[in-house]
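Handoff note, outgoing to incoming analyst
You'll be picking up this chain. Sequence as last confirmed:
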Amino acid sequence: MDSGQGKKNDIVTLVSSKAFTARSYCLSFYYHMFGSPMGDLTVFTQNGSQPMETKWTENTNRGDIWIQNPGIDLKLDPQTKILITAKKNGNTADIAVDLFELWPYNC
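Most recent structure output, in case you need it:
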């Protein structure tokens, strides 16, 4: 999410499109959160039309570096989606994500 675009409270969402086999998974990825005021980067799961469940969140300026999330345990099945959201909180902070890996076991 580029701080120069959009307005406060804008949200960008990545949504999984795969139907998962029912089991536990480990999601890892890299993220970059630089600037202030910082917004929110959040990982949710959602089963069908049920409310989203927060699995991980970060809302701190982490400096001008890429950080590896060591892993988030997720229980997934064919009806469950993974959603990753970046919510903007100002015009001087950026949020980026890269290199997602989903492994078919607990972290």
